[in-house]
Design a protein that fits this description.
The chain folds into two domains: 2-113, Rossmann fold; 132-306, P-loop containing nucleotide triphosphate hydrolases (Rossmann fold, 3-Layer(aba) Sandwich), CATH 3.40.50.300. 32% of the residues lie in helices and 17% in strands. It is built from eleven helices and twelve strands. It has helices spanning 10-18, 28-36, 53-58, 62-70, 104-113, 144-152, 170-182, 196-207, 241-248, 272-281, 288-291, and strands at 2-4, 24-26, 47-50, 94-97, 132-138, 162-166, 187-190, 213-216, 229-234, 258-264, 285-287, 304-306. A six-stranded parallel sheet has the order 5-10-9-6-8-7, sandwiched between helices. Strand 11, helix 11 and strand 12 form a beta-alpha-beta unit. Helix 2 (28-36) packs across helix 4 (62-70). The radius of gyration is 22 Å and the shape is globular.
Length: 307
């Protein structure tokens, strides 16, 4: 198994690829660089897994993904016409695509590179899991530190509980991490400004419970699977419902129940309409301040409105 990602020496990765391997785990940009530098060829690649397909497209990696898929021989794709008999002694490419949401770009890619795919849906695409309780707290910006202390109080003295605190900027990661440490917790920080080895250390420390609170930007919104994350706190709310969905999806995993708390201020009104719709669809409580805000007028649903 060879891991091919940015932030590390491409020549070292190229040496490993040229020695041969059975499985390559890669980010799109770095793998395409390796292909263009002739460190690897994919002529014998028979299995392709596209994980977090929607996120890769959101981050602008659609051209790189297409470049990688186009570098594989089209002769090992099954024919689009289902009536054509398959060759018995030929190994056809199998492609798996995992995506939490299905925007048009993902559907377009699926139609182009998959052949008569079987669609397996777990839950509902783009929706919160039924075992995650969502709690919205309308607060003032300067009240967030006190609210954070209140939400973390239940974790005092319980080393088994873990929590992810999401913020929107790298600087906020540092500030909030210091707040967490002053409250007596062990925290680790994860954001896009960290080198790859620093990110790996932070994730390892969190998974092994050397720290019980991870303070992170949306870098941690996907791909981190830690079963004991009992709570997610949106210290800063994202400006789009897709990021919100992925953040709260870090809790309530492996059949366990989870709790997602979001600190909302009036400056977050961009997300208000989608958030109200999301909460109501999930049968979650909607605070009066949110439900009655002018930006969400006309939105109907079955969510509970509370004071």
């Amino acid at each position: 198994v060879v891991c091919v990602v940015g932030g590390q020496s491409i020549s070292d990765q190229g040496v490993k690829l040229r020695h041969g391997c059975e499985i390559v785990i890669a980010t799109p940009g770095r793998l395409l660089d390796c292909l263009q530098s002739s460190y690897a060829v994919l002529n014998q690649c028979n299995y392709v897994v596209l994980d977090e397909a929607d996120r890769m497209i959101d981050m602008g990696f659609e051209p790189q993904v297409q470049g990688i898929l186009d570098s594989m021989p089209s002769t090992n794709l099954k024919p689009e016409d289902e009536t054509i008999a398959l060759e018995a002694d030929k190994v056809y490419r199998t492609t798996y695509m995992f995506s939490a949401t299905m925007p048009p770009a993902v559907e377009r890619m699926a139609k182009q590179y998959l052949r008569q795919p079987v669609v397996v849906t777990i839950g509902r695409a783009g929706k919160a899991g039924s075992n995650v309780t969502q709690h919205i707290r309308f607060v003032k910006e300067n009240a967030k530190p006190r609210c954070l202390q209140e939400e973390l109080q239940e974790m005092v003295g319980d080393a088994e509980k873990q929590c992810i605190v999401f913020v929107n900027t790298k600087n906020a990661c540092t500030v909030v991490s210091r707040q967490v440490e002053r409250l007596g917790h062990y925290s680790c920080v994860l954001h896009g400004g960290k080198a790859q080895d620093q990110r790996e250390i932070a994730i390892r420390d969190f998974k092994t419970k050397r720290c019980n609170i991870l303070v992170a930007t949306d870098v941690a919104g996907r791909g981190i699977d830690v079963a004991d994350v009992s709570k997610v706190i949106n210290y800063d709310v994202p400006d789009n419902i897709e990021a919100y969905t992925h953040r709260i999806g870090r809790t309530g995993r492996a059949g366990k129940s989870g709790h997602a708390v979001s600190f909302i201020t009036y400056s977050d009104e961009k997300i208000f309409p989608d958030l109200v719709h999301f909460l109501r669809e999930a049968k979650q409580r909607v605070p009066q301040e949110l439900a009655r805000h002018e930006s969400v007028r006309g939105i109907r649903g079955n969510g509970l409105i509370t004071g």
